[in-house]
Design goal:
Distance between the termini: 45 Å
Strand order of the largest sheet: 3-2-1-4-5-6-11
CATH architecture of the largest domain: 3-Layer(aba) Sandwich
CATH class of the largest domain: Alpha Beta
Helix content: 25-40%
Radius of gyration: 19 Å
Number of helices: 9
Number of strands: 13
Number of domains: 2
Shape: globular
Order of helices and strands: EHEEEHHEHEEHEEEHEEHEHH
Strand content: 15-25%
Largest sheet: 7 strands, parallel
CATH superfamily of the largest domain: NAD(P)-binding Rossmann-like Domain
CATH topology of the largest domain: Rossmann fold
Length: 316
């Protein structure tokens, strides 16, 4: 039996990853760790009677030892703009002290290790689309820096533990991902637009709406992560959908899927908000044989029932 540790297991991506690991092999068991600062146990409720899954409420910035494990997926960190603005110091500590703690577990038990990094390592990029060799353009003291720099530091730690201690590491740079279990009201564009449209409220666009993002449906991302975990690649790999949408185009897709007649309103652009965000996935295609399959409109349709369930009763 392969024992797998997933930190951040009660989060959006961590919970989908846990499901995929348990489905991948009957020989897998998963220990999920989360301090629930942003995670939600409802994301794991369907596993309550699954004997191959156990949950431990713990903050990874504090040492712990779960005993021997074969592989570790490190997904513990606030990830939405609302959460890391509220939990700035906690985000920095998760990416630094927390990552070191989990890497030391991998070192102790000779476990494979996959770290969830982010496209935010590229900051507001001058290179487009973003390729893994690009070093980024990040404001180290701006309001987004608690997340951006935590992830950049954690990448350095992961690389160092591989280089100096021969830990079997992998790093995925995750671009915008959406789907069921995405935290409602978390400041991300898809959740904002979907909930506003379903409630009949105006869709809020920051700035002129011409800034771009590339949206990957969660099942595609998890497939790429599992492929990367099975590979021998130690340098960062981009995973995301290379189809680029402006915020205005994304709003149009949401309105089409929901059938909403909501208007669009514009608000000032937040500081350091990236003007363009799009992954170059040539490395993932060549190395993993991976590329996303679910187009935006289909993914939004797959997510519709979930976002409808997030509405207050009076809005349904």
């Amino acid at each position: 039996m392969k024992k797998i540790l997933v930190t951040g297991a009660a989060g959006f991506l961590g919970s989908h990853l846990t499901d995929a690991l348990l489905a991948q092999s009957a020989a897998h068991s998963v220990l999920g760790v989360d301090n629930l600062s942003t995670g939600n146990l409802a994301n794991l409720a369907h596993l309550a009677r699954e004997p191959r899954f156990a949950f431990h409420n713990h903050d990874i910035t504090l040492p712990f030892d779960p005993g021997p494990v074969d592989f570790i997926f490190n997904f513990a960190s606030p990830a939405s703009p609302v959460d890391y603005a509220r939990l700035g110091p906690e985000t920095l500590l998760a990416g630094s002290v927390g990552t070191v703690n989990i890497l030391n577990l991998a070192r102790k038990y000779n476990a494979g290790f996959l770290h969830a990094s982010t496209s935010e390592c590229y900051g507001d990029p001058e290179v487009h689309p973003q390729v893994e060799s690009y070093w980024g353009r990040v404001n180290p003291i701006g309001p987004r820096s608690v997340y951006d720099e935590a992830k950049r530091f954690s990448e350095a730690v992961v690389a160092a533990w591989h280089r100096y201690y021969a830990v079997d590491t992998r790093t995925v740079r995750i671009f915008n991902t959406y789907g069921p279990r995405l935290q409602a009201n978390d400041g991300r564009v898809i959740s904002n637009f979907m909930l506003q449209a379903l409630a009949g409220q105006p869709l809020t666009i920051y700035g002129d709406g011409l800034q771009t993002r590339s949206f990957c449906y969660v099942s595609d991302l998890i497939d790429g992560i599992l492929r990367l975990a099975a590979s021998a690649e130690h340098d960062p790999v981009n995973l995301g959908n290379p189809t680029e949408f402006t915020m205005l185009e994304c709003a149009s897709e949401v309105l089409a899927v929901t059938g909403s007649k909501s208007a669009i309103v514009h608000q000032p652009l937040p500081q350091d908000d990236p003007a363009r965000r799009c992954p170059d996935i040539a490395k993932a295609r060549a190395l993993l044989g991976w590329e996303p399959k679910v187009p935006l409109r289909e993914g939004l349709q797959k997510s519709l029932a979930y976002f409808h369930s997030c509405l207050p009763a009076k809005s349904k």
